[in-house]
Amino acid sequence: MALLTTEALVLRGFNLGETSKVVVLLTRERGKVRAVARGARGGRPRYQSALEPLSEVRVTLYGRQGADLLRLGQAELLHSAFRAGTRSLDAALFLSGCAEMLDAFSPEGEAEDRVYRLALAVVQAAEKGAHPELLGRYLEAWLLKLNGLYPPLDRCAACGGPLATAGSLSYHRGAHGFVCRGCGPASGPDLPSEARHVLAEIFRRPPDALGEPGPAARAIEPFHRELIAAHLERDLRSPRVIREVAREAAR
Ligand SMILES: [Zn+2]
């Protein structure tokens, strides 16, 4: 008997033996799970393109409750992210970064409907042509916030006093947040005042209503990277790949 049937986003897959794959899925009902997809590879692959990263699928999963590895039965493709990925190299890199972020931030077996809806909204916005760079910041900001890791933008992390409403913000690693002038000097990175405005928009708007990224949006990246690395105790791979590709392209 099937353990469950649920909607899911494919995060990644790796080969197993000659004809199988292990897929990592962000399911709507059980959070992140791993499942063996038998016959996913070879001459007549059973699932065709349904198991591509960030495809939205309806899957039937078999196995014991709480098992580390389930078995994939049916996988019906509901929505493919393929078209969004063909828009540009930036969009393709964004999608791979998006899958990596979701994977890193989703604990196994814990459903979080808000994360699932966030992921869907971001993939759909990419498809509609929203700018990949801003979408990346959007996804990071919300994943950090939903995990309780986003420092308040209006309160000093050291003394609890209000932060100036204008001007740049100084992040202090030791305090895990922004600090007022009295509690400085801060370790950085700094968040310029225009970047605060972009962040306010990110927390107020849906991902398909963000507009074009300016230099302010770019200033948010090192700050997010700092928060992400502090939480995961490692750097994600994709931002480095994106920087390397950008450097190559600039030659
Ligand atoms: Zn302070």
Rounded mean pLDDT score:
88
N- to C-terminal distance: 57 Å
Within the largest sheet, what's the order of strands? 1-2-3-5-4
Number of β-strand runs: 8
Q: Give a short account of the largest sheet.
A: 5 strands, mixed, barrel
Percentage of helical residues? Answer: 25-40%
Number of helices: 7
User: What portion of the residues fall into strands of 2 or more residues?
Assistant: 15-25%
Say which molecules are bound, naming each kind only once. zinc ion
SS content category: alpha+beta
State the shape. elongated
Computed over alpha carbons, the radius of gyration is: 20 Å
- Written as H for each helix and E for each strand, in order along the chain, the element string is EEEEEHHHHEEEHHH
Low-confidence stretches: none
Summarize the structure.
The protein has 251 residues and is α+β, with helices and mostly antiparallel strands.
Structural commentary:
The chain has about 250 residues and is an alpha+beta fold. It has helices at about 80-85, 90-105, 115-125, 130-145, 195-200, 215-230, 235-250, and strands spanning about 5-15, 20-25, 30-35, 55-60, 70-80, 170, 175-180, 190. A five-stranded mixed β-barrel has the order 1-2-3-5-4. Strands 7-6-8 form a three-stranded antiparallel sheet. α2 (about 90-105) packs parallel to α4, α2 packs antiparallel against α7 and α4 (about 130-145) packs parallel to α6 (about 215-230). The model has no long low-confidence stretch (mean pLDDT about 90). It binds zinc ion (ZN). Zinc ion binds near residues 156, 158 and 182.
